[in-house]
From TrEMBL:
Physiological role: O-methyltransferase that catalyzes the 2 O-methylation steps in the ubiquinone biosynthetic pathway.
The name this protein goes by in its record: Ubiquinone biosynthesis O-methyltransferase
Enzyme class: transferase
The keyword S-adenosyl-L-methionine belongs to this UniProt entry's keyword annotation: yes
Binding site for S-adenosyl-L-methionine: R45, G76, D97, L138
EC number: 2.1.1.222, 2.1.1.64
Taxonomic source organism: Edaphosphingomonas laterariae
Keywords, comma-separated and alphabetical: Methyltransferase, S-adenosyl-L-methionine, Transferase, Ubiquinone, Ubiquinone biosynthesis
SUPFAM superfamilies assigned to the protein according to its UniProt record, in alphabetical order: S-adenosyl-L-methionine-dependent methyltransferases (SSF53335)
Length: 246
C-alpha cells in the first residue's frame, strides 16, 4: 500500500500471530499440551479477576455468580480457557479471537459443557458500538499489530462504570530468561511464541490505557517459584496484571 494512501480497513490483528495460535487450536484444552503454561496460569489469573470484580462492584466474595446480569468480553480468547469460567460466574460472555480455528474449538468445547458463549472470529475493531461491564484480555497485547489501537478498542468496548483486566509479560531480562530462553526450550512453551521486543513495561501499558481515557486502578505482578508455582506478588519483573476503570 502506498504510504500516502490511508488504510480503509485497519486491523490490530497480526496475521502471522493469528496463524501461529490457530495451528495450536486442537491441542488448546490439553493441560499437558502446547497451552500447558496457560492452564497453570489460569487459576491465579481467575483469582485476581474475582478479587478485582469484588472490589470494584462491592460484591459478595463467597457468591457463586458475581457476574450475573453483566456483559463480559474476553478478547484473544483462544479456545475459551478464560471465557468458560467467566460464563460459569454468571456473565453473558462474548469472546473473540483472531484465529477462526480457535473459535471452532471453543464453540465445540463450550457446547459440551452446556455453556452459551457468543464466540466470534475477528479483531477488537469489529466491536464498535457494543459495550461490556467487564473486558478481559490476558497475554494478548504482545501479539497484536498495533498495541495503542488495540487498547483503544478495548476501552471503547468498556461500559461506563466498567472494569478492564489485562495481563502481559514485562520487557525485562527476567522475562526473556523465563519465558523465552527457558520457557521455549524446556518449559513447554512452543518455540517462537514470544517476541521479547514486543513486550510492554507496566509504564508503557499504563500510558496506553490512560491515553484511551481509562484510569489505572492496580498493577500486580505474576511470579513463579518452584515451591509456590505461579502466584500473585509485588514483583512485576516477569509478568503482570493491570486493572482499569472508566
Amino acid at each position: 500500500m502506498n504510504a500516502s494512501t490511508p488504510d480503509t480497513n485497519p486491523t490490530t490483528i497480526d496475521p502471522a500471530e493469528a496463524a501461529r495460535f490457530g495451528a495450536m487450536a486442537a491441542d488448546w484444552w490439553n493441560p499437558k499440551g502446547s497451552s500447558a503454561m496457560l492452564h497453570r496460569l489460569n487459576p491465579v489469573r481467575l483469582r485476581y479477576i474475582r478479587s478485582a470484580m469484588d472490589d470494584h462492584w462491592h460484591g459478595d466474595s463467597e457468591g457463586f455468580r458475581p457476574l450475573a446480569g453483566k456483559r463480559v468480553l474476553d478478547v484473544g480468547c483462544g479456545a475459551g480457557l478464560l471465557a468458560e469460567p467467566l460464563a460459569r460466574l454468571g456473565g453473558a460472555v462474548t469472546a473473540i479471537d483472531a484465529a477462526p480455528e480457535n473459535i471452532a474449538v471453543a464453540r465445540h468445547h463450550a457446547e459440551g459443557q452446556g455453556l452459551a458463549i457468543d464466540y466470534r472470529a475477528g479483531g477488537v475493531e469489529a466491536l464498535a458500538g457494543e459495550s461490556f461491564d467487564l473486558v478481559t484480555s490476558l497475554e494478548v497485547i504482545e501479539h497484536v499489530a498495533d498495541p495503542a489501537a488495540f487498547v483503544a478498542g478495548l476501552a471503547g468496548a468498556l461500559a461506563p462504570g466498567g472494569l478492564m483486566v489485562l495481563s502481559t509479560p514485562n520487557r525485562t531480562p527476567m522475562s526473556r530468561l523465563a519465558l523465552i530462553t527457558v520457557g521455549e526450550s524446556v518449559g513447554g512453551i512452543p518455540k517462537g511464541t514470544h517476541d521479547w521486543h514486543k513486550f510492554l513495561t507496566p509504564e508503557e501499558l499504563k500510558g496506553l490505557v490512560e491515553d484511551a481515557g481509562l484510569k489505572v486502578a492496580d498493577v500486580t505482578g505474576l511470579s513463579f517459584t518452584p515451591l509456590q508455582g505461579f502466584h500473585l506478588s509485588d514483583n512485576v519483573a516477569m509478568d503482570y496484571l493491570l486493572t482499569a476503570t472508566r
